[in-house]
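= Paired protein data =
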Amino acid sequence: MPKIVSNSTVATTDANEADNQPLKVYYCLCGEYILIIDCVLDSLPRRKTDHAIILPRGQRHYKVNVKRGETVMLKRPNGYEKQYRLLCPRCQVIVAYEANPNPSGEYTYILDGAISATQ
């Protein structure tokens, strides 16, 4: 009779340990991950016009999981603003935008209330 060998590994994480990790994950309201970043979003600056969170390209390490949406022109009090919309790949809700398309744009803007730290 052949010898059967099996082994298993159990991995767990303590909630306190997860809070000390350098990377933070943020999710769309549908549960899809949208942003992985090296800081807490509350520490980042916000735009005065729409309170969107500003992600400066090159100053922060982050990855966004989005699908390119439509380009729109918005009327602002001091002129017009072109936005390249970024959508959740699962539910197609607008979660972010860029003033200039990647990779030439300096910033990615996360809409206020569009993502959450809990899944």
User: Anything to note?
Assistant: The radius of gyration is 19 Å. The chain has one domain: 24-116. Strands lie at 24-28, 33-37, 53-56, 62-64, 67-76, 79-87, 94-98, 107-110, 115-116. The CA atoms of residues 49 and 65 lie 25 Å apart.
